[in-house]
Amino acid sequence: MGSTKIVRMPGRRARLVGSLVAAMALTTLAVSACGSSGSSAGGTNLQLYNDKAAWTPFYKQMSTQAQKDVGLTITPDGYADEPTYQAFVKSALKTANTPDLFTWATGPQLDQLVQAGEVANTSSMWKQAISSGELPQGLEKYYTVNGQQYCIPENTSYWVMFYNKKVFQSAGINSAPTTWQQLMNDAAALKQKGTAPFYETNVLFSFVWFQTLLAGENPTLYTQLTEGKASYTDPGVVQVMQQWEDMINKGYMSDPGNKTDPATLLKSGQVAMVPDGTWFNTSMVQAGMKSGSDYGMFVIPAINPSVTTTPVEVETGPLCTSAKSSNSTNVNKFASWWLGTNAQTTWANSRDDVSANPKVNITDPQLKTLTQEVAGTKYQLLERYYDAVQPDVLTAALSGFGAFMSDPSSYMTQLQTIQKANASAGSSGS
Amino acid sequence: MSQQLLTAEPRAGGSKPPPKRRAGHIRGLTGWSYGMVAPSVLLVAALLYAPFLWSAWLSFTHYNGTGSPAWAGLANYRELFSDPVLDTTLRNTALWVVGTLVLPVGLGLLIATLTYNVKGGAWLRLPFLLPYALSGTVTAVVFGFVLQDGGALNTLLHTLHLPGSSVSFLQTAPLNTIVMIFAQTWQSIGVNLLLFVIGLQSIPREPIEAARVDGAGGLRLFTSVIWPLLRPLTAVIVGLALVAGLKTFDLVWIMTEGGPGRSSETLAITMYEDAFVSGNYGYGAAVAVLLTVIGLVVSLLYLRQQASPKRELDLTGAGR
Cα distance from A429 to chain B (closest Cα, Å)? Predict the structure, then answer.
C-alpha cells in the first residue's frame, strides 16, 4: 500500500522529498563520522586512552588525586586487545580530534610516531624532572629520538624472577640463587620434587626466556640483535637456543600451551618460578599471596661468569600526547604533576609496583630493595626485547619462539625465519 | 511446483512473458525513487567500495599506519608469494573450506533427513540447534578450555585412563586445525540442519508418494527424489559454507591466535597478523586482496556451475 502512495506523489514534490531524505542521510553520516573519540578543547577532564584495561581502578584513583592537587581529572578508556588499541591510536592521531593522553611503547613504536610528527615533544619536561631528581638520567635514552625527548614514563618495571617460597623450602632450598649454577641446581631439585621449576608460555610472552638467556649470556649481542645489527643465526644466538632446548628437554619448563594465569600456577605450586616484570607483583597480591612470606623475587643471575654487571631488562611504558593537541596547557600541567613524587607514590604503591621516580618511597619491602639494588653499579639495564625490536621482527620472533616450544629441535628453522623478518626490516647484520 | 517454491522470483502471470527492460533504465524509477535509493547507494559506496579500493591501493604501498603510505609497486605481492607462511595459510584455509563443507553441511543434511517426519524429531534436533545460539567467540572460549594443554579433554582422558591424555590438541599442526574445524562444526551444524528441515518441508508430497507407489524407499527414495528436490537449497547452503570457510577468523584467533608458529593461520588470520599485529598495513592489504580474489573466483566458479543449463534442468527435479 505504501508504495502505491509514493508512486502517486507529484514529480516535483517527489524529487524534493527524495533530495531531503538523501541530505538527511548524508548529514547523519557526517555527524556520526565527526562524533568519534577525542578531546574537549581546553577541558579539565582529560581522556586517557590506554592498553591496560585492568588498571582502570588505579587510573580512577589517580584522577581523584589529580583533581585535589591540580584541578584536573582523567577518564581512562582501556583497551584489552593490543592490535586494536594500536590501530585506534594511529587512526585517531590523524584526525583533528586527537586523544588528550595515550599510552604507547618505547623503541621502534615510538620512533614511528615521532618520525610522522604525531607526538608532542617533552624535552623541557625531561630536563626539569632530571634536574629535580624526579627522573633518572638512565631512563632518558628510551624516550629520546633524534636527540629530543617524547612522552613521559607512565610505568617502569624491572624483569626479575618471582618464586614460591614454600615450594622452594619443600625442595630444601632456603635462599634465592645468586649464580646461574645455583639456579640450575635449584631447578634440578625442584624437578626432582615433581614441580615444574620455570614458567613459560607460547603466546605473547614467548620471548621471555630468549631475552633472559641471551642477555645473561651475552648482553652486547642482545643489544646488537634488538637494534637489528646482528643476525639471529649468529653462533651466539644459536648457542642460547640450544641451552633453552636443553632446559626444556630436562623438564625444567612448564607446559607452554597451558593458558592458566601464571599467578595461579605459582600460588598453587604447579610452577616454582615465573620470570616477569615487577608489575606481576600486582597479580600476585590480587591472587591473595603475601609478599616476602608466600613469594619472593630475585634478579636472574648472569649465565656467563665473565659478565660482571648482571643484566636486568627494563620495561618502561610511555604516556604521550599528540603534537596537534588542542588542550596542550592542561595536558602539560597534568604530565608535570604525574612525574612528581606525590603522584608517583600513589601510582606505584597502589599497583604494588616500582616507579620511574627515584624519590618515591616504595612500600613493598622486596620491591624497595630491588629498586635500590638495580640502581647500583652491579647491574646493567637493558631494554625489554618486546619493546626494543621492530614490530614485524617481533611478530616473527613471538611466533618462532612459540613454535620452538612445541618442537624444541626446530630452533634453527625458527631462527632462520626470524632472521628473514630481521633482514627485510632493513637492519640485518647478516 | 517445486521450482515455484524454491526459486526467488516465481512468475505471477502464468505463461505471460516478463516485461522487456531497456538497458541502463530501470522501469518506474522516478526522481523520487532515485532519492530513496541514493542513501543506500551512498552507504554501499562509502562503506564497501571505497574501503575495498583503498585496501587495493594500500597493497601497493609500504605503510605502518603513521604518516603517509609510500609507493612500493608489486613488492608486497612478491614478498607474499615467496613467503613460506603462505603455503601453510593456503593449506589451512583449504582444510577449513573442505571441513566446513563436509562436516556442518553433510551432518546437517544427514540429521535433518533422519529426524524429518519422525515422531519426536523436533526434540532430536534440538541439541544440534542450541549451539547455534552461541557466538563464534563464546564457542572458541569454551573449546579453548576443553582442548588446551591440561584442559578438560586431557583431564577426562587421564581420569578414564584412556590414550591421548598428553596430546597437545591445539599445539600440534595440523591436528589443531582439525580439532578447531570440529569445534566450528559443533556450533554451525544447527543452522544447516534448520535450513535442510525447511527444504524438506517445502518438498511437495506428490512426487514422494508417487515414488513410494513405484516401490522406492530408504536410500533409493532419498537419492532419486528427495536429494534432487533439495538441490536448489543445497546450492545456497554450500555457497554460504564456501564463503564461511574462506573467511574463517574468530574461532582460530581466540583458540590459537594462528599459532604455534603460525601453523594454524588462515588467510584472514594472516591478513590481521600482518596488518594489525605487525603494523605492516600494505602487506596485510595484499593478503586481503588475495583473499578477496580467491573468494570471488571460488564463488563465481561455483555459481556458474550451479547456473549451467544442465543444472537448471536438475533444479526442477524433472525427468527423475
Answer: 20
pLDDT score, position B98? 95
Phi-psi region of B258 (alpha: psi -120 to 50; beta: other; left: phi over 0): left
Contact A199, A274 (CB under 8 A): yes
A373 is written with which cell numbers? 639494588
Give the model's pLDDT for residue A42: 60
In order, the DSSP letters of A4-70 are HHHHHS-HHHHHHHHHHHHHHHHHHHHHHHHTSS---TT-SEEEEEES-GGGHHHHHHHHHHHHHHH
Tell me the pLDDT tens digit for each residue of B72-87. 999 999 999 998 889 9
User: Which residues make Cβ contacts (< 8 Å) with residue A220, sequence separation at least 6?
Assistant: none
Nearest chain A Cα distance for residue B244, angstroms: 23
Closest by CA position to A257, among listed A187, A198, A206: A206
User: CB distance B261–A400 less than 8 Å?
Assistant: yes
| Axis crossing angle, helix A219-226 with helix A208-217, rounded to the nearest 10 | 130
Interface test with B, best of A395, A409, A422 (most B CBs within 10 A): A395
- CA-nearest residue to A22 within chain B is B39
Q: In angstroms, what separates the C-alpha of A23 from chain B's closest C-alpha?
A: 8
Q: Which of B265, B262, B229 is nearest to B248 (CA)?
A: B265
Amino acid occupying residue B244 = A
Of B150, B258, B260, the CB nearest to A405: B260
From first to last of its 430 residues, what are the pLDDT tens digits of chain A? 333 333 344 444 444 444 444 444 444 444 343 334 444 446 899 999 999 998 999 999 999 999 999 999 999 999 988 889 999 999 999 888 899 999 999 999 999 999 999 999 999 999 999 999 999 888 999 999 999 999 999 999 999 999 999 999 999 999 999 999 999 999 999 999 999 999 999 888 999 999 999 999 999 999 999 999 999 999 999 999 999 999 999 999 999 988 889 999 999 999 999 999 999 998 999 899 999 999 999 999 999 999 999 999 999 999 999 998 889 999 999 999 999 999 999 999 999 899 988 899 999 999 999 888 887 889 999 999 999 998 889 989 999 999 999 899 999 999 999 999 899 876 433 3
* Chain B CB contacts of A14 below 8 Å: 30-32, 35
Contacts of residue A261 in chain B, CB cutoff 8 Å? Answer: none
Q: Three-state DSSP class for B288?
A: helix
CA B13 to chain centre: 36
Contact A255 B31 (CB under 8 A): no
Give the distance, in angstroms, between the CA of residue A249 and the centroid of all CA atoms in the same chain.
Answer: 30
Looking up cell 621482527 gives: A393
Cα–Cα distance between A227 and A214 in angstroms, integer? Answer: 14
Which residue of B lies nearest to A395 if distances are taken between CA atoms? B278
| Spatial CA neighbour of A111 closest among A231, A225, A227 | A227
Contact B168 A405 (CB under 8 A): no
Q: How far is B171 from chain A (nearest CA, A)?
A: 6
Whether A190 and A266 have beta carbons less than 8 Å apart is answered as no
ipTM of the prediction: 0.72
- CA neighbor of B258 nearest in space, from B240, B241, B276, B242: B276
What is the rounded distance in angstroms from the CA atom of residue A144 to the CA atom of residue A127? 12
Question: Which residue of chain B comes nearest to A110, CA vs CA?
Answer: B66
- Tell me the average pLDDT across B167-176: 91
